[in-house]
Design goal:
The structure is a single chain. This protein is of the alpha/beta class. The chain has a single domain, classed as Rossmann fold (3-Layer(aba) Sandwich). It is 48% helix and 19% strand. The chain has a seven-stranded mixed beta sheet, with helices on both faces. Helix 8 runs antiparallel to helix 9. The chain is globular, with a radius of gyration of 17 Å. The termini are far apart. Bound molecules: S-adenosylmethionine (SAM). S-adenosylmethionine binds next to helix 3 and helix 5. S-adenosylmethionine binds at residues 41, 44, 48, 90-93, 95-96, 113-115, 118, 134-136, 151-153, 156-157.
Length: 261
């Protein structure tokens, strides 16, 4: 049984694309940043259910293996905070949670996601503390965690402010947030990157996963997502200070850290 919603993927992706997640490169490039529209959650749930079987392979191929390095860098930062309890939000197939578990063997790592097929993958890789939960309404007590991480997940959430506020709520005072997500690099890499992201990835991923629409959505969502100082401010408004952003690999991804007030 598919645990991720009831819409047919193709209809859902098309609907998503037609309501602002345009697939045209020039259209996307000029779009202003905006929080995703209401109703996006079930579509995203369904999308990840549809691509879950090929998710890891597609990740590793399209990032050229760099995703391992990005998560390892994130895990190293988490280790420097010496946490006892870590929540990896939008844990998906669990790769960041596993990297953190390796770096912090004495910490309890909880992985949460709202897509059961993705959690099933994480479980098969050996993660045990897995919770089916929506980031916008977390089933955890206030101040329960020392660190909350979210890799390539916040961008997909229906309401970034609300998701960050929930992450702040479940963090103890002085606890740390780490957000890792795609960003758009500066020129001269930008043009080439956009060609890769909007043309090459959807074409190849369509062949690999049979879900080209999911990867057209990926490019559109990256263009819409705030980055750099705009993301620092979004995080600060949710109740954090010491916000820092660190572009990696020429700005293809950015790592954000902050401390819960
Ligand atoms: C691109 S995957 C990232 C998975 C993993 N963190 C990684 O680094 O590979 C995005 C994940 O976010 C999850 N997600 C998106 N919105 C969510 C929400 N509102 N609540 C919980 N999980 C969500 C999806 O189900 C999916 O597993």
């Amino acid at each position: 049984m598919d645990m991720c919603g009831g819409l047919s993927p193709q209809v859902s992706f098309d609907a998503l694309l037609s309501t602002g997640y345009a697939s045209d490169v020039t259209d996307i490039a000029t779009k202003p940043s905006a929080t995703p529209e209401p109703g996006k959650g079930p579509v995203v749930q369904r999308l990840f259910g549809a691509i879950s079987k090929r998710y890891d392979l597609a990740n590793h191929i399209f990032s050229g293996g760099l995703d391992f390095l990005w998560r390892r860098r994130a895990a190293k930062i988490v280790h420097s905070w010496a946490p006892k309890r870590v929540l990896d939000m939008a844990t998906g197939s669990g790769d960041l949670a596993l990297a953190i578990a390796k770096k912090c063997p004495n910490a309890t790592i909880v992985g949460a996601d709202f897509c059961q097929p993705m959690l099933d993958l994480a479980r098969r890789k050996g993660l045990t503390n897995l919770v089916l939960a929506d980031a916008l309404n977390l089933p955890f007590a206030t101040g329960e965690f020392d660190v909350v991480t979210v890799a390539f997940g916040l961008r997909n959430m229906e309401n970034w402010e609300r998701a960050l506020a929930e992450m702040a709520r479940v963090l103890r005072t002085g606890g740390h947030l780490l957000v890792l997500d795609f960003s758009v690099p500066r020129a001269p890499l930008r043009g080439l990157y956009r060609l890769y992201l909007h043309r090459i990835v959807p074409f190849l991923a369509g062949l690999l996963t049979g879900e080209r629409g999911a990867y057209e959505y990926l490019g559109a969502s990256i263009e819409e997502f705030p980055q750099g100082e705009a993301m620092n401010q979004l995080i600060a408004r949710a109740g954090f200070d010491e916000t820092q952003s660190q572009p990696l690999t020429g700005g293809i991804v950015t790592l954000y850290t902050a401390r819960r007030l």
